[in-house]
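note to self: dont lose this again. the chain is below, predicted strucutre after it. 275 aa total, dont forget to put it in the shared folder this time
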Amino acid sequence: MPRALCVLGWVASIGSVRAEPGGPARAADDVSWRLGVALGWLATSGDFDVIGDRTSANQPGAAPLFGVRAAWAIVPTLELGVDVALAPAPTDGETAWLLPASVALGWRPLDGAVTPIATVGGGVLANFAGAGDIDALITVGLGVEWRFADAWALRLDAAVLATDGVDKPLSFSPAVTIGIDLLGLGSSAEPDAVEPPLRDPRPTRVPLGCPAGADPARCLDSDGDQIIDAFDRCPTDKGPRPDGCPDPDGDGVRGLDDACPDRPGAPRDWGCPRP
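---
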C-alpha cells in the first residue's frame, strides 16, 4: 500500500555517528520538523481489496508510489508524522488511483548522521477510480536515514501495508521507497560560555626588576619574581613575564584570566574545561 511511501520518510533523522561541530550535520536533537517527498514501488497482494465490490476479479497490480510527508518531533527519538501518497495501479479494466493517508509514530534510537528508523501507523486507503472504495490501513516499516547536510536527509524504507482482503480479513502488501527530507532546525545551543573574570588594567609590557633611576621605595617586589608590584598582576604569587602570574594547571591561561585555575581548559573558555 502506498502507505509504505508514507512510512518511507516522515521520521527522518540522524543516527549512529554523532556529527561534530563543523561537520556535515548537526545533532539529531536540533530537528524540530521535516517536510519530504518520496518515490517507490508497491507490490499489491493478490488478496488486495480496494477496488469496489469485495471480489478478486479486478485486482490492482504493482504500481509506482509518489508521496509527500511531514513530521514533528515529540522528543529527539520520537516523531509524529502525516503522509499522503498516490499510486496509479493498473487493473484488468481501468487504472485504480490508490491514495493512502496515514498518521504514524517513528522511532530512531540512535543520534548521528546515519540512523535506523522503525515506524508504525494507521489511516485509510482510498481508490478514486470506477466504483471507488475506502478501507482502513495499518502500516509497519523499517528504514535507514543518512543526514548528509544540516538541513537535508536521504531516506530508504521498506514497509508492510495491511488493508482489507478479499478472502481473508487482511491483505499484506510490501512496498519500498526512497526519499529526501528538508529538516527544520531548532536552536543548536552550545555550552554556555564561562563569564570572563574582570581584567586587571595594568599593562602587560613591564620592565624586569626596578627601572634605572626609579625610587627604590616604589619598586617593591612582594613575591620575588623580578616584576615589581606596580606592574605585577599577581603581586603575591610568583610568576613569569609578562604579567607575573602563575599558571598552576598549565593550560596557558594565567592568573586573573583563568576562571578555573586548578583545571586546564581552553583560552576561549577563560581556562575552564567544557561541560
